[in-house]
Structure formats: structure tokens, C-alpha cells
Specification:
It is built from 17 helices and 16 strands. By secondary structure, the protein is of the alpha/beta class. Strand 6, helix 7 and strand 7 form a beta-alpha-beta unit. Bound molecules: nicotinamide-adenine-dinucleotide, L-histidinol (HSO) and zinc ion (ZN).
Length: 425
């Protein structure tokens, strides 16, 4: 983990940090293309082949049965079921508030009514990761907003366990969130299945959800045949910490980030070299005691502590456009005013990323690899379309006829012009 002044970063070092994970995707595109082609052509047979190859298990029927869901409740601690239920309530409440703030509207001027209505996407496919860890929380973050948006059919795909079963907590979360169907298949092959349909897995209209580089590359490649939310790959965090920030909390937030994936970077920007060194020491101390140390050690290589004044830290963060941004400074709301790009923002020392990961109600499916520059995280809006409407009186049509006729004829589209001219003559 390097410590460097922001202004001393060589162009190459800066671009390596900013362009994290982009190279990884490019390298695996040919492999993923082949997987998608085979799934498209051979359906379930290809799913069985890749599930054996990548997950090491034989699966005959990918669909999770009612019996498997019932059994899943007996395999997990009651406290976990309760936590899933409580988190669901907060997530539902937050996303219902989003829906409430999305209004259909209409304006009227000179006999012309124009407006916008809301309609949900019908068929949704949610990818729920299950490689290095299983993510029942992602079930809640994907299925609940889709259901709040009124989507008709919401299906989940998630990798099987080493025993070839559905992960019990994932299945329970799917049941609590009211997913319509669940399938035990993961990786690029699951994305291909939802994009093109197989004998057992239905083709959907939109695929949402996070995943590793194989899942993210597959989503990018099927985009156009199906809608996707946005690239939500290996998780990342950038922390802006001033000289008063608590280095123990920062070290813990580093570990919480790094344990996701060896490609999961944590960038800490801070206002003094002394602070940077004490944060690094604390990270090393905490790492000694950490679980999942093999993953954390690898993630450390993608991570950095950068030093600059507060404005330089903010500027770097805006260039990096992190998935998660923690602001641990004397006045986080002042810093917030200058933030241009971030997936989800955590203000102050008592708002670590894990609260948003599980239970504050905000969505944890967020854009990575600088895609926060142009995308927001998953929300009810992801699952809604906004068709526009217009209704005109004859008087209203007369009022804009000249504009339409003139522009249509300028484009050489005389049929367009005539469709208006005849009505107003
Ligand atoms: N951005 C977000 O919103 C967000 C949210 C939660 C999790 N995440 C990220 O999701 C990721 C989850 O990754 P994961 O690996 O644990 O689970 P995953 O489900 O994304 O990937 C596991 C699958 O990858 C496939 N795979 C593994 N090795 C392969 C290979 N060599 N070739 C082809 N396919 C292969 C297998 O099919 C396997 O089932 C982490 O990076 C985590 O940070 C991101
Ligand atoms: N931090 C991850 C990416 O937003 C989400 C997550 C799920 N479980 C734990 N963490
Ligand atoms: Zn997390």
C-alpha cells in the first residue's frame, strides 16, 4: 500500500489508481463472449457444463423448489431470519419514499397537454453474487425496489453452494422479498441465461445486480439485447479523512472493504503525512487479526493512502468517482457540497459503509470503475419507464401547425407535414 502526496503522483501512478479494474475486464472479454455464445446456442446444457467447470457441481434442475425454500428456513439461525426481515423493512420504506417522490405530471399550454406517466418494466432478472461470499443482502437490494416499482415477475440467479444447493440465507431473503422464481446458477452463464432465455430460465427485460469481473463483463456484452442497470463490479471505497479522523475506524473500514475481493480497492485521502502513516500502521495492526486475510492482503496491493489539503482530497475523489465515499472530517456536510460524483456517500465517523450495505435502507448496488460519473445506484427508478403523453384540441393543433409543417418540410418529410395540414384546414 503506497503513501504518496497527491501532487507528487506521476501521471502513470495516478491513471493506474483512477482506471482501477478496467484492465481486468478487457482481459476476460473473449472468455465471457464464448460463454455467452454457448449459453445462447445450447441453453441448459451449457449452463450445466459451466456450472461443473466453475462451481464444481453437477446440477440437473436449476430451479429452486418450494421444498428447498422451506428447508432453507431450518438451516439458518433465527437471528439471521429476523435481521433479514428488519433490513427488508428499512429497504422497503426507503424505496417506497423514492416512489412517492416520482410523480406523473402534465402541463397545459395553448390547448396542448403534454406530460409524463410511469410504467414498470415487466420482467426483471436479479443477479445475486455467491463466489467468495454469499450475498442475501443483495437479494433485498435488487428484489425489493423492483417489487416496489410494481414489476410483474422478478427472478433471481445466484451460484450454488459447494454441495450444489441454493445458499439457505439467499433463499430465505428471496422468499421474504417475494421473488417470483430463484435459480441456482452464477457467473457469466447466469447473465447469458437471463438475457437469452434457456429451457428453464426465462428471458427478462432488464438484468440488475452486482458481481465479479466475469458477471460485469457479461452484463456489458448482453447490453442492447436486454437492459442492464450499470456496471456494478468489485466493490470500492474512497475515504476523505482530515487530521482529526479516528484511524482505528478508518482501518476497520479498510478491512470491511478489502475482504470483498482481491480486486476491491480502498483509497484513503488525508490531510497530513503523519495521519497517513498512523492510518497505515493501524491497518497493518488490524490486518494481523482479520479473517479472510488472504483476500485482504491482495486487495491491499490495489489500495493507496494519498495526502493533500482538503481541496486536493475532494478533487481527487471527484476524479476517482468512487462507488462508496466516506467523509470523516470536522464538517462533512461542507465537504459534501463540493462532491460531484459518488455512488453512495457516508457522512461522519458513525456512518461506515456496512450500514448502507445492509440496513440503513439505501441501496448497496452501486456503480463501480468510475461509472458513478454518469450513473446513480439501483433505485425504484431503475425499474420504471416514463412514457410521455400529449393530447391536443383542434385549437391546440392549429397553434403549433406552422412549426410542425415548416420543420417537416425542411427535413423533406412531406407526409409529416400533411398529417397536420389536413387536420387544421
Ligand atoms: N458494486 C456493487 O454494488 C457490489 C455489491 C455487492 C457485491 N459486489 C461485488 O460482487 C463481487 C462478488 O464476486 P464473487 O466472485 O464473490 O461472486 P460472483 O457470484 O460474482 O461470481 C462467482 C461466479 O464467477 C464465475 N467464475 C469464477 N471464476 C471464473 C473463471 N475463471 N472464468 C469464468 N467464470 C468464473 C463462476 O461462475 C462463479 O459462479 C465482489 O467483487 C463484490 O465486491 C459489488
Ligand atoms: N459493499 C458491497 C458493495 O456495495 C455490498 C455488500 C453486501 N454485503 C456486504 N457488502
Ligand atoms: Zn460491503
Amino acid at each position: 500500500m503506497i503513501i504518496k502526496r497527491i501532487r507528487d503522483l506521476m501521471e502513470e501512478e495516478r491513471s493506474k489508481i483512477i482506471n482501477r479494474n478496467k484492465m481486468n475486464l478487457e482481459n476476460i472479454i473473449p472468455t465471457v463472449q464464448e460463454i455467452l455464445k454457448n449459453v445462447r446456442e445450447k441453453g441448459d446444457e451449457a449452463l450445466r457444463y459451466y456450472t461443473k467447470k466453475f462451481d464444481g457441481v453437477d446440477i440437473e434442475d436449476f430451479k429452486v423448489s418450494k421444498e428447498e425454500i422451506e428447508n432453507a428456513y431450518n438451516k439458518i439461525d433465527y437471528k439471521v431470519i429476523e435481521a433479514i426481515e428488519k433490513a427488508s423493512e428499512n429497504i422497503k420504506e426507503f424505496h417506497e419514499m423514492q416512489l412517492k417522490n416520482l410523480k406523473e405530471w402534465e402541463m397545459e399550454k395553448n390547448g396542448i397537454k403534454a406530460g409524463q406517466i410511469l410504467r414498470s418494466i415487466e420482467n426483471v432478472g436479479c443477479y445475486v453474487p455467491g463466489g467468495r461470499a454469499f450475498y442475501p443482502s443483495t437479494v433485498l437490494m435488487t428484489v425489493i425496489p423492483a417489487k416496489v416499482a410494481g414489476c410483474e415477475k422478478v427472478v433471481i440467479t445466484s451460484p450454488p453452494t459447494k454441495e450444489g444447493e441454493g445458499n439457505p440465507a439467499t433463499l430465505v431473503a428471496g422468499d421474504i422479498a417475494k421473488a417470483d422464481e430463484m435459480y441456482k446458477v452464477g457467473g457469466s452463464q447466469a447473465i447469458g441465461a437471463m438475457a437469452y432465455g434457456t429451457e428453464t430460465i426465462p428471458k427478462v427485460d432488464i438484468i440488475v445486480g452486482p458481481g465479479n469481473v466475469f458477471v460485469t463483463a457479461a452484463k456489458k456484452l448482453v447490453y442492447g439485447d436486454v437492459a442492464i442497470d450499470f456496471p456494478a463490479g468489485p466493490s470500492e471505497v474512497l475515504i476523505i479523512a482530515d487530521e482529526n479522523a479516528n484511524e482505528e475506524y478508518i482501518a476497520l473500514d479498510f478491512l470491511a472493504q478489502a475482504e470483498h475481493d482481491p480486486n476491491a480497492p480502498c483509497i484513503i485521502t488525508t490531510t497530513s503525512m503523519e495521519k497517513a502513516n498512523s492510518i497505515k500502521n493501524k491497518i497493518i495492526e488490524e490486518m494481523e487479526k482479520a479473517e479472510r486475510r488472504d483476500i485482504i492482503e491482495k486487495a491491499l496491493e490495489n489500495s493507496a493512502i494519498l495526502v493533500g489539503d482538503l481541496n486536493e482530497c475532494i478533487e481527487f475523489s471527484n476524479e476517482y468517482a468512487p462507488e462508496h465515499l466516506e467523509i470523516i472530517t470536522k464538517n462533512p456536510r461542507e465537504v459534501l457540497k463540493k462532491i460531484k460524483h459518488a455512488g453512495s456517500i457516508f457522512l461522519g465517523e458513525y456512518a461506515p459503509v456496512p450500514v448502507g450495505d445492509y440496513a440503513s435502507g439505501t441501496n448497496h448496488v452501486l456503480p463501480t470503475s468510475a461509472c458513478a460519473r454518469m450513473y446513480s445506484g439501483l433505485s425504484v427508478e431503475t425499474f420504471l419507464k416514463k412514457p410521455t403523453i400529449q393530447e391536443l384540441t383542434k385549437e391546440g393543433l392549429k397553434n403549433i401547425a406552422d412549426i410542425v409543417i415548416t420543420l417537416a418540410e425542411a427535413e423533406g418529410l412531406y407526409g409529416h407535414a400533411e398529417a397536420v395540414r389536413r387536420r387544421v384546414k
